[in-house]
Amino acid sequence: MSFILQGIGVSEGIAIGHAHLAAPSALEVMHYLISKQQVDKEISRLNNAFSVVRGEFEALQNSVSDGPARAEFTAFLDLHLMILDDPTLSDAAHTMIAQTLCNAEWALSQQMQVLIAQFEAIEDAYLRERKADVVQVVERVLKAMMGHPGYLPVASKHTGDSILVAHDLSPADVMHYKQHQFVAFLTDLGSLTSHTAIVARSLNIPSIVALHHAHQLILEEDYLIVDGTQGIVIVNPDQSILDEYRLRQGQLELEKKKLKRLKSIAAVTLDGTSVDLYANIELPEDMQQVKESGATGIGLFRSEFLFLNRDDLPSEEEQFEAYRTVATEMHKQPVTIRTYDLGADKNLNDAVQVATNPALGLRAIRMSLAEPKMFHTQLRAILRASHYGDVRILIPMLSHVAEIEQTLQLIQQAKDSLKDEKKPFNEHIQVGGMIEIPAAALRLNMFMRKLDFLSIGTNDLIQYTLVVDRIDDTVAHLYDPLHPAILWLLSHIIQSANRANKPVSVCGEMAGDKRFTRLLLGFGLQQFSMYPAQVLAVKDQILKSHLPDIVPLVRKIVKSDQTDKIKSLLTKLNS
Ligand code: PEP
Ligand code: MG
């Protein structure tokens, strides 16, 4: 049967291929049969994993310190211990192993599905939602059994044209799937600027999120057309539609090829204004794409991705090697390393999420300052890499000037320790700050005075100004880069920085969206940082832009408080 699903396209392009469904659990588990002789061993493997997780929960219970979240956290742990000890979970899995000779992971995930179905039938909404706790507990047991990350090779028959269909993917999941040759990603949840979408975009393959029921409606092996630009999926299309999309796919390839000719041309507007186009990366492995893009620097190295999908912390040496690789490969062009922005939707493996509003909680620089030892390790690694190129430090999520002062002190301590050890580093390393919290944008001067440069994180700036969770698709329609308040803030930050001669860039998703290139140019922006795959399209737009024509229109846009008028002026600006 052919049908169409609509979601939010987060990465452009067309992909055609076969569906491969990710397991509903965040972990893909191996399915295999065991012999009768192995049953006892398999059951004890399962029991051991339950004991490990019980031990983890008990240790967590003992470590809860007094504080406002104590009661909530303890209740959460009690509930998870109760689920863990409930015989309907473990006993049923034992029986399944013994009777059907399936492996322990398979048995447990099947029993989880049975329990989920039972929870879904409950009328009481609160109790129904407790199925999420069952999933979390089971995932923990599965992890304990397999050793994290616990992902297994994705078994799809169609290597080369597989489209991953998942209910939800965390940023860490997407990182994991980076190694697999998927041609597109589809998820039921998510929104345009969720980190999951951002990582999917970095893979430069069509992706659609917020499809709601794709994981239920699409079957393994279904043939799919994914139109990442329009945000639509056509399931089992007719031949005529398939032909039409193949034609469009060919045209897009041609357009991409044409853009490649711009790679070594400088990004200069028609009136002679020079613009820096930098790349956003997550890992040193992204450098190949950076080289192909013609980007002239790294505007944002999201260093926290070095910390994901693992049980230990990356050592100073490992981080140093990663940062040095990027610095060396960029040949003295700027490399802006953002200190880890962990927390919210990017968590360390052993972190237990207790905050009610994690995006407002212990995230980014707040976490770094709360964990000075871990921060010290990173600062030393960045400083050591600064000897090999134009490395800069970028502090995420600043809301108080004191955070800059404390960070500068910690940087000084890291410098002193390196000096004692006679390890070389750039004494004059530049330290910049992300402007992504309205407080920093509104009182920019006091932040600017203490920083060498600014980088505007529009993804969070929009989230925190409009109070719209960037990962929640139910409010995605309210997430509006063209909201008059956002436009005013952006114009204010860029113009204030320019007046103060403070270099300023935009490294949020707006910088890579060519619909906003002229708008940002009109605000006075001359540094854009984006995914490598977006650089050439943005450059194309810059080469065709004439600032004296743009500026008056952009002024009108900022003055307007009518959404329709803003949209029509933007269309005019881009025509
Ligand atoms: C941003 O907030 O715009 C940004 C670039 O940082 P991140 O998306 O990693 O939060
Ligand atoms: Mg941010």
Note down, in words, how this protein is organized.
This protein is an alpha/beta fold. The chain has 3 domains: 3-24 and 157-258, 3-Layer(bba) Sandwich (Glucose Oxidase, domain 1); 36-145, PtsI, HPr-binding domain (Enzyme I, Chain A, domain 2, Orthogonal Bundle); 264-574, TIM Barrel, CATH 3.20.20.60. The protein is 47% helix and 13% strand. It has 23 helices and 16 strands. The strands form 2 sheets. The protein has an 8-stranded mixed sheet. Helix 8 links the parallel strand 5 and strand 6. The protein is globular and about 75 Å long. The model is unreliable at 148-155 (pLDDT under 50). Bound molecules: phosphoenolpyruvate (PEP) and magnesium ion. Phosphoenolpyruvate binds next to strand 10 and helix 18.
Q: What sort of overall outline do the alpha carbons produce when their principal axes are compared? A: globular
Based on CA atoms alone, the radius of gyration comes out at 25 Å
The tally of beta strands, per DSSP, is 16
Overall pLDDT level: 90
Main β sheet profile: 8 strands, mixed
CATH fold-level topology of the largest domain: TIM Barrel
CATH superfamily of the largest domain: Phosphoenolpyruvate-binding domains
Shape-level CATH architecture of the largest domain: Alpha-Beta Barrel
Query: How far apart, in Å, are the first and last alpha carbons?
Result: 40 Å
**Oligomeric state as shown:** single chain
